[in-house]
Amino acid sequence: MGIELGRFGVWQLESKISPELAVELEQLGYGAIWLGGSPPGDLNAAEALLDATTSITVATGIINIWQVDAATVAESYHRVAAKHPDRFLLGVGAGHPEQDQKFVKPYGALVEYLDALDAAGVPVEARALAALGPKVLKLAGDRTAGAHPYLMTPEHTRQAREVLGQGPLLAPEHKVVFDTDPERARAVGRQTVKFYLGLVNYTNALRKLGFTDEDLAGEGSDRLVDALALHGDAETIGRGLSAHIEAGADHVTIQVLDSDPLPAYRALASVLL
């Protein structure tokens, strides 16, 4: 594909990524910035980051198909891609049934959305699909550059690569807490992880990875939190992130949960990049 992501990138909520931070992340050597939190269809935030930088790729992680119609996002895509060729990846996905009242037959809705992007001239190689289960992973491989799994482990990455086969992009997200105190780090990780334990698409996927009802109960077991929000020093976290690459990922996008993520991104860059 023409769009280069590098081995490691950064995932942050759109509201927490400034052009100044993007410049430093590019200088540190990260290959991509993924904008989370269901960015709006105007893609203005992505464009601002691309304007401020020279080489780093910007991706959406993800545009919610229930919140932004395909025609709107396609028009924005063409504006951004024309200005910054081969530097923008359009990540789309179906979100969560608990949050989207329109969430009906999501697989069919994804197919229709991709059909509309095709009709609007958005290239297959310039888009990615949020995917957890085999059916949507296969769709990602068939109709987009590849898959962007969220809140999963290296074992999921291994299984996803088996479904995708060689060739399609596999770019999982993973959360980290840059803290060597386990109890303090778990408390930070749990604050984010617990939200997803009320979302059936994530709990179903986690059960298939061997996590039990006990792990998923309440705010999550220590075992679950440790797996989904890596913690420790840069070397320890770096080994955990690299396990995704060893399992078949092309690119891992790192979500630092610390209130100030920059020290962690700087420390991890020295280990990973």
Automatic annotation (TrEMBL):
Domain Luciferase-like: 20-251
Superkingdom, taxonomy of origin: Bacteria
Pfam families, per database record: Bac_luciferase
GO function term, MF aspect, one: oxidoreductase activity, acting on paired donors, with incorporation or reduction of molecular oxygen
InterPro entries according to UniProt: Bact_Lucif_Oxidored (IPR050766), Lucif-like_OxRdatse_MSMEG_4141 (IPR019922), Luciferase-like_dom (IPR011251), Luciferase-like_sf (IPR036661)
Cellular component aspect of the GO annotation: cytosol
Protein name: LLM class F420-dependent oxidoreductase
